[in-house]
Amino acid sequence: MTVTSTLFFDLWDEFMLWSIFVGVFTFGWLYHHSVTYRSKEGEELPNVDEIEVGVFPKENDDLRLEVAWTILPFILIVYLTYISWAPVDAVWTSAEGGNHGFECEAGYYSNNVMDSENGFVTSDCYHIVEVTGKQWAWTFECNPDIEVTDRTYELSTDICDTGTYQVEGYGMQPSISLKAGETYLLVMESEDVTHAPWFIELGVKEDVLKNQKTTMWLPITSTGEGLILCTEYCGDAHSVMAGVLIAHD
Amino acid sequence: MNNKNISRSLAVFTILALAMIIAPAATSFPTGVSGVKDSGCNCHGAIPSDTVTPMVEGLPEIYNYSETYTVTVSFTGGPTDSGNINQGGFNLWISYGTIAVLDSTVQSFADNEVGHTEAGNDQTSWTVEWTAPANDKNIKFTLTTNSVNGDAGSGSGSSGDEWNRVSGSVSAPVEVIESANPFTVLATLIIVSLVLLVITLTYIFYRTSPDAFDWEQFGPWIAGWVTSTDHKKVGTLYLVSGLFFLGIGGIMALMIRIQLAVPGNDFLTQDQYNQFFTMHGTTMIFLAAMPLINALANWIVPLQIGAPDLALPRLNAMSFWLQPISAILLFTGIFSGGAADTGWTGYAPYVVSETAHSGTTMWVAGQIMLVASSTLTGINFLTTILVMRAKGMGLMQMPLFTWSIFISNLMLFISIPAFGVGLIEVYLDRVIGTAFYTIDAGGDPLLWSHLFWYFGHPEVYVVIVPAFGVISEVIATSARRSIFGYRSMVYAMAGIGLVSFIVYGHHMFTSGMDPSFRFVMMMTTMLVAVPTGIKIFNWLKTMHGGSLVYRTHTLWALGFLLTFTLGGISGMFFPSIAMDLHLHETYFVIAHFHYVFVGGTVFGIFTALYYWFPKMSGKMLDERLGTLHFLTAFVSYNALFWPMHRLGVVGMARRHHTYFISGEDVLGALPAEYADWNLFISINAFLFFLSTFILVANIIISLIRGQDAPADPWGGWSFEWMTDSPPPTPSFPLDNLPVLRDANEHIANEPSKLGAWFNRLMVADEEVNN
Lengths: 249, 770
Fold this sequence. Notes:
Chain A is of the alpha+beta class.
């Protein structure tokens, strides 16, 4: 599994396009002027604006141009904000009837589908899973306490299962197996300092705080295995506080 | 103030000082009191009758891999009680390999440590088996007699039952060269750099005045620097200390890059790595970037506005001298092996937790002093710029560099108190057990994030806006033109200053902060692009129709335009929250802010050095060395930071002391080819570091035998080019201050209505009455 977040790459491509446009425009201009308007060898230093020590120089401005390059970048950023809007709504959608509906009742599946027009996932319902961070290990819990979920039944191991996994360099790490096509809401809390699980392949992370529950959507759309790293600095073994996400059929 | 008040103040101060000294001792953090294990063996109260001589037999001088040796430990002397009861005991520790227990007289404490049992207490000789390691190690061993808990912390930590000990070593089949502790390396490099700095300064002093080189002259010369309140001398002090700490921060960066050069490296331990990136960040921001900017501001602002000195020269000297002292506090941990390991952001609750190093307390204390220093600097420059401008220089006739210093100090002055408050809270939490950030007691970790970033984001602009000022001066002068759109330049800088206070939440998009607040921050952050864009386009337009003279500073300024624009563009990816959730805390962030900090601030500072050095020293810098410096630094800099963008996207997290590579069957963080990119980055880090020595060499050579500089070598218009190079002290004669004329007669000396009102506020009463 490599980074597969459609949400991320749709935005990335759009931003790259405009970056390249702005870059080509600016650097083309820079190159042209620094070549065209260079002083010639051996020439006495010209003084275009009659600059003199102790005299505030002649004004050199053009209101139309200055307004132009205030308005045009502004229009561009309004556009970039506009295209960022729907993805924000998707990553932080409501748990009460948002893109992923309500928590699944016994026997129901999420059956998530990619809304190809918008690039984000919608589901019939979702499953709540608990993530706990502590120095320096993750704990995944498929069937958390009643204070986290109202669910009255246990998730089948097909939908959610936990275990351990041997990871190169990190040793034995906790893993969580989730089912492709299902959508999960992680309810997260820390036992000590702040942590943040980064599901690299899914392109999401969120801080995990003590005495405060945070949540993160995890719509699983493809299969594979991916690493989970801690991305909020938490002390000595921060860099090996890892986990594994296994997405299966 | 009368004597009574003075003595009262002194008394209060003494009590406060005493309280601060006592408080940390009362409840300082328990990072382990001593190495004493559970109580020693008290089973043998007898006192040895004779000198005890411990012996270890059976250990080879040079071991063979994995071979097992039978080792006999024994002693002579000891109690004369012949009843064969409580004859004594032992503890044997061998640094590598494993020790096997053969009978019930011996017990194992660890793979490499054994001692006697109750049953073994009645004899003076024991036998164990030691298996040598399978690789090359320098092995040490220690045998203590009687004391079962062994080396119970030598001296006072001992449980008092040790009779005697013997230590020795076993060599490996192939001689092992011990690798040095990275802290020892760093501490040594810091000391060596300091010594080199002193030697260099002394040499320059000698070469510039060989006749005056004796102790009688040297003392007053040093005293002159230490006690000076002259803005030029203080500026030079800032410059030297800033460059020194740029080197120290660079050394730390190199050690980080050595660690990251190959996957799974163990050059630094996790613990050491955490301290290195923390100190690298703190050093570069607070001890390198800020002092270098203050160096330029100190030197140039009074000259540019035609003032004889700063408004508050003694306060200025104090601002400077707080810095080296706070540097000592910040670095205390490095010399004691336990520096702050919190990241420069020092996030709560980790920063107040017991797992954070004890050096963190001193690190916080040092930063509180830096807050004081920056506040004083802010007051000083705001006052100077508002009230000491030459006649004829309205606010809208100030040189753009002065404007940039004005705006950055305004930002600093408004934002840094929040940081100071946060630091004091952390300090109190750490030393007297208050609960600002202790979550169980109701403390709030997000409070720290808010206080820190309310300061931290403007701080980023505090170090970049002066670079804008420098580039404005240099591009205009080099193109032989007036700057294009002077007014929009000023408004753009002011706009950046204003916006900087309402965007800080973009550092907290993943923090658990209220989503609607995060959303507002997304929109404000996007806005930053507008004033920044105006500035870039104005610089480009300034070159239009001009006649660009290529000097070293011109090259650096053009290089700045390229790298800073790239840094600005990559910055646009973060406010789009759905992307930030992936990019946050990765190498994409590292790449972005190094493009802005190094490609922006540091390149701006280099530009300024090449531009104003002739004014400061009266000597010209060598253009060929300068061009060489630019080319090597520019290429290696881009090769160093550009690949980091990609590393972040594919999965390299920042603040991770190592990374692993995915293979066919193994799961790691990065695809295989990215190990090569990391090595490439590390090599270029060394090249970039080394290229800076070209600048240092250029400065030294120029000071010794550079050409004399004329008053206005580049053809600038502002007042600093009117004075001699170097300028006299006071910089302008008090009875003959310069007066600014204006080539635009129609607006000369006619402030707008707002400007007139502002001026009325700022001009002293006596002056109004006159």
